[in-house]
Amino acid sequence: MNNFTKLLCAAALATGATQVASAQTLYDNFETTRIVSYPLVEGTLVQNAPNPGSNAVNSSPTCASYARAAASQYAVLVVKPNSAVMASVAAYATGGAKRISVKFRSPAAGVTVGVVLQNSRLNTGNYPTGKFGTEFTAVTTVANAWETLTFTPSPAGGGNYDPTVAATDIDQMLFQVAPNSNNGSTYYLDDIMGPELMTVVPTAPAVRQLYDNYEGTRAIKYIAYKSSGGLKVDTLNNAVSAANPSARVARYTRSANQYDALVMQPRGAALADVTNFKNNTLHMTMKVFSPAPGIPFQLTLQDSTVATGPNYPAGRNSEYTATTTATNAWETLTFNYSATPSGTANTSVNEIVLLISSNTYVKQKVYIDDFYGPSLVGYVPTATRTISSDFAAFAPAYPNPTSGLTQLPFSLQKQSVVSLAVFDNLGRRVAQLIDGETRPAGQFTAELNAAKLAPGLYTCRLTVAGVALSRPLSVE
Length: 476
Known about the structure:
Blueprint: H1 3-6, E1 25-28, E2 36-37, E3 43-50, E4 62-68, E5 77-81, H2 90-93, E6 101-105, E7 112-118, E8 131-139, E9 146-150, E10 152-155, E11 172-177, E12 186-194, E13 208-212, E14 220-222, E15 230-236, E16 248-253, E17 261-266, H3 275-278, E18 285-290, E19 296-302, E20 316-323, E21 329-334, E22 336-339, E23 351-356, E24 365-374, E25 387-388, E26 392-394, E27 405-412, E28 416-423, E29 429-439, E30 442-449, E31 456-464, E32 467-475
Antiparallel strand pairs: 1-12, 2-5, 3-4, 4-12, 5-11, 6-9, 6-12, 7-8, 7-11, 8-10, 13-24, 14-17, 15-16, 16-24, 17-23, 18-21, 18-24, 19-20, 19-23, 20-22, 25-26, 26-27, 27-30, 28-29, 28-31, 31-32
């Protein structure tokens, strides 16, 4: 099996004739209509590129340029509607009146462009999980000029799709330009037209979630190639105290770069709507051990598909600041909203950047622990141990998998306001077991009748004192 089939897309793409575009929804014209994001780009996508050659097909001043990753034989460009799923794509799979289309400019004629439809939550990298059973193909006919590519459907080859994915399960599509090659050329896209979207379901505002305690809970990953300094996770706490009794923490050594950055991304899910953090209703926090008071810390929430090092402020949704007050002692920094660098949507954040002593050249060593940030959409922790915060612990559901009554045990360290809900794999709430009730300290067990739920994967979310703890549940 080649890299293409191991990842996301189809192993073979059928070629079909170009037809008149008749898709129903404009996803992105890179100017006024922008209802999608690009969570995975194999190559470089510039979303505000000037039109390299206006013609009758496309006279727009702005488009997108896509420099294909030559190192990837089957490079993909993922297009995902914001806070929505597609309506049934059955009509697009028949080759009838409805077609996916895009305005496209290629350096050569005869370049194959493919589209694959997916359910992103089922797609875990275990090919072909999550892939719809129809593939879509078009071929360029001119060089260095705009044309409209209209994609022709064909059935996926045997074994190259997920039979559990129905036409009503699709929430993203993938473009593949020149598949099965090591082409590194630059292409241009505009006016992406795709299947109709279901009525947008507003994303629930984010609550606080523990990102990393360096002892078993890790909801984020660290992007080494984007970071400036050196990070050592799971190191011994250098100064155990009442302010931080944890045995293990992380050590970060700031580089001498003027804008040293530690870049983090959520694991397996996007950040929920960060509005409550931008209006200071909720705050990100982090335990810090630093060499001196007065050291500024800044957190930036951004869209990684737009934000790059040299193009500030593009893609930066919001910035938050805090300053150390202690010398060689643990303290908890509370970050306050400080700026909105760009118009990036509050639902399009997929990357977090920590800046320490920004706009200086000082090398410093700090220790960090217990980082809390905006909750992740549909996050399912991989650990089997009890998930906990400072105020509560959430044990695994049992039995799991289940088809009937299921117990959800949790405990509280002190009297707290508690909510407990169950969400499906599209982020929709399907059950509310506890809704903002005040409970005393102690051990509790909520009961869920899973017989009322359709088979599939669910997330049980316990929210205590504004912090969300999540557990996976499988219903058979």
